[in-house]
Design goal:
By secondary structure, this protein is an alpha/beta fold. It has one domain (2-15, 29-246): Alpha/Beta hydrolase fold, catalytic domain (Rossmann fold). The protein has helices at residues 2-12, 73-80, 103-118, 135-146, 161-167, 181-188, 205-215, 233-246, and strands at residues 31-38, 41-48, 56-62, 85-89, 123-133, 151-155, 192-197, 218-222. It has an 8-stranded mixed beta sheet with strand order 1-2-4-3-5-6-7-8, with helices on both faces.
Length: 251
């Protein structure tokens, strides 16, 4: 049974597909390195620090399971320029972070990253938005159970790992990491945007539709698959910023 559990996590968190790249050049005041100590070493995050007067809104973004946090820095640079802090946490075992990724470790690390971010006097705690792509939607979902956000964006996200596993005839009893995203959005009651590719064969479009219906969110349907849904950085940033404006997060 332990071998099957290990195999499940090997498939769910393929960090072996995301080798370490060059360390992004850190520029204090613009791009900074956050990290937290864990029982397994250290987990890192990148902070794109916005410039502006008073307390500013902030985004916490969680990436997909075959990506690295730093890959999303160019996309969220557009968001930072609009006066929004952006925190890009890494998962354990990814990039330069040590340890083993799982739902419990993500919950623990993301809560600590969240609390550290909100301790910053330039962050407005009433305007903190979570954004998650694919597996990252599940990650911000587990964070939302512990720390309620002001708003939520889910990109090509599943309703739960159990619903995904059933497509491949995997017994749900074997699942250690469940990421019950649908249950989370039903109870949050915050402005929510769901973005999903209509030709997504990895996380079918039906998942996005069900998530949007569960919380009466706006559903943006894109004629794309799973990994080609957000190739235009400026367009995605514009879509996010439009939602932030509509929800009143930008002042």
């Amino acid at each position: 049974m332990s071998i099957l559990h290990t195999a499940q996590r090997w498939l769910l968190f393929p960090s072996y597909l995301t080798p370490k790249g060059p360390t992004p050049e850190l520029t204090p005041g613009d791009l900074e390195l956050f990290d937290v100590a864990t029982r397994e070493g250290r987990t890192q995050a990148f902070l794109l620090r916005a410039r502006g007067e008073g307390r500013l809104p902030a985004v916490i973004f969680a990436h997909g399971n075959a990506e690295r946090a730093e890959q999303w820095i160019p996309t969220f640079e557009h968001v930072r320029r609009r006066g929004i802090h952006v925190l890009l946490p890494e998962y354990r075992g990814y990039g330069r972070s040590t340890g083993t990724p799982c739902e419990a470790s993500i919950r623990e690390d993301f809560v600590r990253f969240h609390d550290r971010l909100l301790s910053d006097p330039t962050v407005d705690p009433s305007r903190v938005i979570y954004v998650g792509r694919s597996m990252g939607g599940g990650a911000v979902g587990v964070l939302a159970r512990e720390r309620k956000p002001s708003g939520l964006v889910l990109m090509n996200t599943f309703t739960s790992i159990a619903a995904m596993a059933s497509r491949f005839l995997v017994p749900t009893a074997l699942l250690r990491d469940r990421f019950e995203t649908l249950e989370v959005v039903r109870s949050l009651g915050v402005p929510t945007l769901v973005i999903h590719g209509t030709r997504d064969t990895l996380v079918p479009y039906e998942h996005g539709r069900r998530l949007a219906e569960a919380c009466r969110a706006r559903l943006v349907s894109i004629d794309a698959g799973h990994n080609d849904c957000f190739t235009d950085e400026a367009s995605l940033a514009s879509l996010l910023l439009g939602f932030f404006e509509e929800a009143g997060f930008l002042r």
